[in-house]
Specification:
By secondary structure, the chain is α+β, with helices and mostly antiparallel strands. It folds into three domains: 3-68, Rossmann fold; 96-154, Dna Ligase, domain 1, CATH 3.30.1490.20; 158-353, ATP-grasp fold, B domain (D-amino Acid Aminotransferase, Chain A, domain 1, 2-Layer Sandwich). Helix content is 24%, strand content 27%. The strands form three sheets. Strands 8, 9, 10, 11, 12, 13, 14, 15 and 16 form a nine-stranded antiparallel β-sheet that branches. A four-stranded antiparallel β-sheet has the order 4-7-5-6, covered by helices on one side. Helix 1 packs across helix 8 (257-265) and helix 9 (324-334) packs antiparallel against helix 10 (343-353). The protein is globular, with a radius of gyration of 20 Å. The model has no long low-confidence stretch (mean pLDDT 92).
Length: 360
């Protein structure tokens, strides 16, 4: 079995390493300041846990290595302008958008798109950073040096935020998880819910993501974030990696997204994972862990051993049970152990769980 090197040494990389152990796969994490000479990359497979990285001697060498899976795809998917053009070329629905080059565009933008828009950096700007919600009265909040480096999108009135996580193998086989319902606040994912009941958009979403992965000849796990609106399913963004909204797969599916990614890039069998039961994932952001959480047998704590500070993602909780009612009751019992700002996330999760059949 080949070694797997992961560019980046964050929590996603550590989860990939954990997923490799039962398979007998050795996964090494490469920090961005590492000396590439210590790695035997020519006899390995290289993947990544991050979407954007600085231009260093290390990344320049990796970008030229034939061992680096999807090396020619990252420049397309990490640039929002190129990503939107790809989706448009495939006739896949997105929010109306256009490049933002100069201030003189604003009258035309508000006339064509709407009075309420979102400006996004072409590169980077994840977890709510590098994004600005605008109307005609506050265009000055966009930094001057961002013009020519951004796109602008119409703000969408959506009924649900969804993500589809799928994988494509080297032989073109694909596998998908059920659509996941997500709750964001200020651009940061706070909670996810997956249900076992039928979702009328599952086949549509799988077709869309399949088109993208086949067009790019992509290998590995890819995540497609979507809005459900009155116009139907709209693609918001693509992530060429394992994704926070798929963390529930660690405890509610037969194959986690991390193992599925390793299977895909190593040309191992790629069956569709079985989702055993409904699940709720809560991100732990800027709070300390509580050992009392472990008293609940259906709770799985994933703690990253990071220094706790405001706004930093330090872990996540997965709750799993066959009964959505029981999951809702567990959330209710956990509510007093969380800061007050978690109330909205937990109530959203309970409301999502309470829907016997979701037609979106």
């Amino acid at each position: 079995m080949k070694l797997v090197y992961v560019l980046g040494d964050g929590q996603l990389g550590h989860m990939l390493r954990q997923a490799g152990e039962p398979l007998g796969v050795t996964v090494h994490l490469i920090a961005l300041n590492s000396d590439l000479r210590i790695f035997s990359v020519n006899n390995s497979v290289i993947t990544t846990e991050i979407e954007c990285w600085p231009n260093t001697v290390l990344t320049q060498k990796l970008s030229k290595s034939i061992s680096f899976v999807n090396r020619d795809i990252f420049p397309v998917l990490t640039d929002r302008l190129r990503q939107k053009k790809l989706l448009n070329d495939l006739n896949l629905a997105t929010a109306p958008w256009q490049p933002l080059s100069c201030k003189t565009q604003w009258p035309q933008i508000f006339s064509t798109l709407d009075r309420h828009v979102i400006v996004k950096c072409r590169n980077g700007g994840y977890n709510g950073h590098g994004q600005w919600n605008l109307c005609p009265d506050n265009i000055e909040i966009v930094p001057k040096n961002m013009y020519g480096q951004c796109i602008v999108e119409k703000r969408i009135n959506f009924s649900n935020e969804l993500s589809l996580i799928g994988a494509r193998g080297r032989n073109g086989d694909t596998a998908f998880y059920p659509l996941t319902y997500n709750f964001h606040q200020n651009g940061v994912l706070r909670a996810s819910v997956v249900l076992l009941n039928h979702n009328t958009q599952q086949n549509i979403a799988e077709h869309m993501l399949s088109m993208i992965m086949h067009e790019l000849d992509y290998i590995g796990v890819m995540t497609m974030e979507c809005f459900m609106s009155s116009e139907g399913l709209l693609i918001n963004e693509l992530s060429a990696r394992v994704h926070n909204s798929g963390h529930w797969t660690q405890d509610a599916a037969s194959i986690s997204q991390f193992e599925l990614h390793l299977r895909a890039i190593l040309n191992l069998p790629l069956p569709t994972p079985i989702t055993y039961m409904p699940a709720v994932m809560l991100n732990l952001i800027g709070i300390n862990s509580r050992m009392s959480w472990l008293s609940e047998p259906r709770l799985h704590l994933h703690w990253y051993n990071k220094t706790v500070c405001h706004g930093r993602k330090v872990g996540h909780i997965n709750l799993v049970d066959l009964s959505p009612v029981i999951l809702s009751q567990i959330l209710n019992s956990l509510l007093p152990t969380f800061p007050v700002e978690y109330t909205d996330y937990i109530i959203w999760a309970q409301n999502t769980l309470s829907q016997k059949q979701i037609y979106i």
